[in-house]
Every structure is written in C-alpha cells, then in structure tokens.
Amino acid sequence: MKNIIDLSLLFEKGRLFLSNHILTMDNEFNFKRMVVWQKAMQFASLAIDITEQLDTQKCYFKLIDQIQGASASVPQNIAEGKGRATDKDFAKFLAYSRGSLYETLTLVNLFYMKKWISKEKLNELESLGEEVVKMINGLLVRLR
After folding, report:
1. 123 in helix, strand or coil?
2. Residues 140, 43, 51, CA angle at the centre, nearest 5°?
3. Among 66, 67, 86, 91, which lies 20 to 30 A Cα-Cα from 14?
4. If DSSP states are collapsed to H, E and C, what string results for 16-66?
C-alpha cells in the first residue's frame, strides 16, 4: 500500500476549502492516473504521428509546428491544472486544454481540405478528440 499525504485542506483568501489534489510518497504524479490525461496523450501522439507522415512543401512547416504544439498542449494543460492548488485553477487549465484540442482539430481539418491527410486519419483524430472533450466537459461540470 502506498503512503499518501492528503493535502485536501488548503488555505485560500482567508478560508479553508477542499481540494482533490493528492500526492503519493513514491513520487508518482497523480495526473498520470487520470483517464482524461491518458486519452489526451494518445490524442497528442496521434496528431504528431499524422504530421510526421506529411509530405508537404517547406513553406507549410509553421502549420505543422502549430499542430504539434497545440496537440501537445492538451495533456500538458491537464497536468498543469491538476498540479494547481485550487479547483478553480484546475478548471481554467482544463478550458485551455479544450481550446488547444479545438485548435488541433481545426488544423487537421485544414490538412484534410488541402488533401494532405486522408478522411480516415481525420476521423480517427476527431473520434479520439471527441472522447477527450467529453471527459474535459464532465470534469468542468463537476468542478464548477
């Protein structure tokens, strides 16, 4: 059994509040246990895989960099938000994560319109993105 330090009672603006942020003694980061983070990592990995398979002109490298950055930002913001002290901050970073996911999907749709990727790749990433967005939205409802 893991030794757990429960940091659920924290102090903010002169009042105590409850938080779900727990650290384990074995240095395992709690965000890694979140299914939404795990799915977001799959989403980012798939988006990056898609860009690595592109055969486009050099002038489009900025768009490729943008999709890689936006997709990586999805799990990064979930992790960063989970590491914050308040649920309000966590919710803010979940919203950032959702925005980065939408940015990624917009770029992937552009890539499809330009015929740089197949309909199958577009559908695969949109399907995974839909799963992640539903999880993020569920967490946001619970946190607010």
Report:
1. helix
2. 140
3. 91
4. EEECCCEEECCCCCHHHHCHHHHHHHHHHHHHHHHHHCCCCCHHHHHHHHH
How would residue 81 be classed by pLDDT, with cut points 50, 70 and 90?
very high
**HSE-up of residue 14 (Cα within 13 Å, Cβ side):** 0
In a domain, 107, yes or no: yes
H or E stretch covering 86: none
Does residue 105 lie in a domain region? yes
- Residue 119 belongs to what domain range? 31-143
| CATH code: domain of residue 69 | 1.20.1440.60
Main-chain dihedrals φ then ψ at residue 17, nearest 5 degrees: -145, 160
Residue 108 near residue 43 (C-beta atoms within 8 A): no
> What totals of helices (H) and strands (E) does the chain contain, helices first?
4, 4
pLDDT, tens digit, 9 for 90 and up, residues 104-130: 999 999 999 999 999 999 999 999 999
Whole-angstrom CA distances from 62 to 74, 102, 119 are 19, 18, 22
Q: Structural domain tally of the chain?
A: 1
